[in-house]
Amino acid sequence: MRIEEFDYTLPKELIAQHPEDERASSRLLVLNREKRTVEHRYFKDVKDYFRPGDVLVLNDTRVFPARIAAVKPTGGRVEILMVEELTRTTWSCLAKGLKKGVVEQEIKVGTVSATVRYAGDTWEISFPEEVNVRDVLDKYGRMPLPPYIKREKNGYDSSDFDRYQTVYAERLGSIAAPTAGLHFTGELLRDLTEQGVIIANITLHIGIGTFFLIKKETVEDHQMHREWYNIERGTAEAIQTARAAGGRVIAVGTSAVRTLETFFSKGDGAESGYSDLFIYPGYRFKAVDILLTNFHLPRSTPLLLTSAFAGKENLLSSYAVAIEKGYRFYSYGDAMLIQ
């Protein structure tokens, strides 16, 4: 399968730079896979598509301020994106601003010294033993917005600390938001509970596996980077019980899909682990009946997962309709319900 099959052209003005003032006021495109029909609603209407006994699966990961600005001894700037904690003082990271061929560089983050070293696909950043890295991030870190969301030169907008986070975020560990969940409000979740919908939380800490674009010409050659997940035993049992009783599993976001599919595919009952599951057209879904998601970038792993769930032609034709109707795309954009 060729990756160019998952290209589409998006006018720049449809890339959302800020979220809607009210979370649930985003637009919602509803795709019925079997009937191949499209409806245009608002996100607050999503409850019209749920039934008592359905299970709504939320990824409760919390984004941390993973983007930090550093300087070299020469005064040159280095942009660091923290990815994963390896030890108490060493993290894997991405680094921008280092000369080609450099394998090790001393830097300073504010007043704190650190060293970055090349480690293959990524870099590693190490701090002195006495440094609490979380304190450094709390003091100097910025929210890790994707590069297509533009901010002023310092990359800072205080509202992003609130809005680039779901209202149900709990477990700190992601470097990107599970953006399908950004549309939910506490009131909407309460309404769904009163409606008889079961709310189930899982965790997948979103890392570079989710947002790295596919560089291989052949889709099957792409290798996903691993991401940590957790499903409590009680949550897994609640999902299985609901399905056995005729309830549907509604995954909020591609990260929730990958977590559920990884867990129920393994079948070993392990509550925590790492997922490097790459879902693309041809995959047979085992645990998810309905997908609630945002509009994704061309050649991205979330786009291929969504294509696998909706059908590639269904999805791309729906994207064409969304573009024609002026939907807002990507992280701060509108939503899509695929049933």
3D architecture notes:
The protein folds into two domains: 3-63 and 161-338, QueA-like (3-Layer(aba) Sandwich), CATH 3.40.1780.10; 67-141, Thrombin, subunit H (Beta Barrel). The two termini are 25 Å apart. The mean pLDDT is 95. Helix 7 packs across helix 8. It contains eight helices and 17 strands. A hairpin with a 5-residue loop joins strand 5 (67-71) and strand 6 (77-85). It has 339 residues and is an alpha/beta fold.
Number of strands: 17
How many domains make up the 3D coordinates? 2
Helices and strands, in order, run as: EEEEEEEEEEHHEHEHEHEHEEHHE
Strand composition percent: 25-35%
CATH superfamily of the largest domain: QueA-like
CATH topology of the largest domain: QueA-like
- Poorly predicted segments: none
Output the CATH class name of the largest domain: Alpha Beta
Task: State the end-to-end distance.
Answer: 25 Å
Identify the notable features of this structure and list them briefly.
339 residues; alpha/beta; QueA-like; Thrombin, subunit H; 2 domains; 6-stranded antiparallel β-sheet; 8 helices
